[in-house]
Amino acid sequence: KMIKEGEEKKPVDKTKLNEKQLIAYNIVEEHYNKFHNPNNINRKKQGKNDQLFLEITGKPGTGKSFLIDCLRDLLGPNVAIVAQTGKAAINVSGSTINKFFGLPINM
After folding, report:
1. What is the Cα–Cα distance from 81 to 96, expressed in whole angstroms?
2. Rounded CA gap, 68 and 104, in Å?
3. How many angstroms separate the CA atoms of 37 and 16, rounded?
4. Mind listing the pLDDT tens digit of every residue in the chain (107 residues)?
5. How distant, in Å, are the alpha carbons of 41, 46, 104 from that of 82?
6. Which of 38, 56, 71, 76 has the fewest CB atoms inside 10 Å of its own CB, making it the most exposed?
7. Separation CA 107–CA 95 (nearest Å)
């Protein structure tokens, strides 16, 4: 899953998203196109109440990492992917919540 230096990441096939994954993907895509897509000349200025927070949860093997890979392809490199544990953060090439926000471990 980790990309080695010099390797190019292949695009993810979003047509393989299941029904629930597709719902989440479409919510994010709609928000991105409305406020952030540089190719959308009609995009709106985002206000503080227009932020989108999305928590992806599920049992092992339900496709959380695949959905995150699809969202990363959509949003590009300027997206924060955080997870509760180090193992989960590694699985999605992200960071732990504590590390991302600079929180002490023993809070």
Report:
1. 9
2. 26
3. 23
4. 445 555 566 788 999 999 999 999 999 999 999 988 888 888 888 887 788 888 999 998 999 999 999 999 998 877 889 998 999 999 888 999 999 999 987 75
5. 30, 22, 16
6. 38
7. 17
